[in-house]
Amino acid sequence: MEGNLVKDSPAAADPGPGSAFRGVFRRHAAGVAIITASYHGQPFGFTATSVASLSADPARFTFNMARGSSSWPAVANTSFVGVHMLGLDNQALADRFARTSDRFGGDHWSPGSHGVPLLHGVAGWLIGCITMRLSFENNAVVVAEVIEGGTGADGAPLLYHGGGYAAPTDYII
């Protein structure tokens, strides 16, 4: 088995832990999702790579966000959120929710249960009832219990890796 072990020598020392942190996570591929919520009748949303399943029974998911985000007031003050998993054909939607303020202009969404904005044409979506918000410094971890969901067309997921969007590839060792 010796031949299958990867032996890397440590890279040149980074100037600090923040630099190492950024470098390590740039090498970590993550699925791309959009989180949505409604607050005072207005839709809010943002692109996220921090979505994860927390438990299957009961079905719960979690995500992280900055409390300075323009969407934080909605997430902090509502009971329900939506999570939308994106496929390769949703890159423009990911960009729209990451880089523009006009996130809901157009017909790419409609109001769902509990007023949660639902995005059309995504790989899958869930509506969750927020069960916990854990604030830590300027960030928050949010936990939601799934109350509803659906899947879209099957296809490759949209990934974020190395500072940009990526597609999964077959890799055989």
From TrEMBL:
Residues 25-167 form the Flavin reductase like domain. Keywords: Oxidoreductase. Pfam families: Flavin_Reduct (PF01613). One of its GO terms (biological process) is pyrimidine nucleobase catabolic process. The keyword Transit peptide does not apply. The keyword Oxidoreductase applies. InterPro entries: Flavin_Rdtase-like_dom, NADH-dep_flavin_reductase, Split_barrel_FMN-bd. One of its GO terms (molecular function) is riboflavin reductase (NADPH) activity. This is Flavin reductase.
